[in-house]
TrEMBL record:
Protein name as annotated: Esterase
Keywords: Hydrolase
Keyword Membrane: no
Entries under Pfam families matching the protein: Abhydrolase_1
UniProt source species: Listeria kieliensis
InterPro entries recorded: AB_hydrolase_1 (IPR000073), AB_hydrolase_fold (IPR029058), FrsA_esterase (IPR050261)
Length: 249
């Protein structure tokens, strides 16, 4: 089964679209898969190919400030990082509407991402009940806690933040899945995280799963732990993520 990879510009968003050759003209379930911090859409193409092999049409966008839209990082700590995630959230509807309008989506929408893309994925679940299932690889559902931990780490190195920093980031409270876990509403979500991840420690994800997996709204949470793994997704995890979403079709 050969995959077709097409480079597109959807409004101002550079994307790679991956689909099986023989299915290219059909309405298919759509996966929007988001890359991580300071990488680009090309570096998640292997995951895109694995998803396409399962019969999905896969959209791999460049986040704002990344890839073809790369910009100089702001000197204010984490501003570019959070701006990139917020940009992904702003552009989600644009991508979905394009595929619907072009007759390329069958109306089933799935999301996934790694690292920063996993954070994006969890945030989207708070506002878009039409998302059928999701995959979060090395991500973080508790973004307010993640932000606050980042502030603490930076201050330990005598990095100053504007006094209004938390207020300027107040949009995060409304997109924090750990603060509104009932919005999962029973939708399947697959978490994968390495035990030795130094960038996004596993502890927060473990807490989220422990608190919510036994609830009705969290009954379809699946959590796989990568023992001894760091901040890197291996091909077996990519296979597991693709199989998980395929099982939800």
């Amino acid at each position: 089964m050969a995959n077709k990879v097409v480079k597109k510009q959807i409004h101002t968003i550079p994307v790679l679209e991956v689909v099986r050759d023989e299915l290219a003209g059909e309405r298919l379930p759509l996966v929007i898969f988001y890359h991580g911090w300071q990488i680009n859409k090309e570096l998640v193409l292997t995951q895109g190919r694995k998803l396409a092999a399962k019969g999905f049409r896969v959209c791999l966008p460049d986040a704002p400030n990344h890839g073809e839209r790369k910009q100089t990082l702001s000197p204010i700590p984490s501003v570019t990082f959070w701006n990139s995630i917020q940009g992904n959230l702003f552009e989600f509807e644009t991508l979905c509407e394009y595929y619907e309008k072009e007759g390329l989506s069958n109306g089933e929408i799935y999301v996934g991402g790694l690292s920063m893309g996993g954070i994006t994925t969890c945030a989207l679940l708070t506002h878009y009940p039409e998302i059928k299932a999701a995959v979060c690889l090395m991500g973080e559902p508790a973004i307010v806690d993640y932000r606050n931990r980042g502030i603490e780490r930076a201050r330990a190195f005598n990095v100053d933040f504007p006094q209004s920093y938390v207020d300027l980031m107040s949009w995060q409270e409304k997109f924090d899945l750990s603060l509104r876990p009932e919005l999962l509403a029973g939708r399947p979500i697959y978490f994968w995280h390495g035990t030795e991840d130094p960038k996004i420690p596993i502890d927060s994800v473990k807490r989220f799963v422990a608190v919510n997996q036994g609830k009705e709204y969290g009954k379809n949470i699946v959590f796989e732990i990568g023992e001894g793994k760091k901040h890197l997704v291996h091909t077996d995890t990519m296979d597991a993520a693709a199989s998980f979403l395929a099982a939800q079709k």
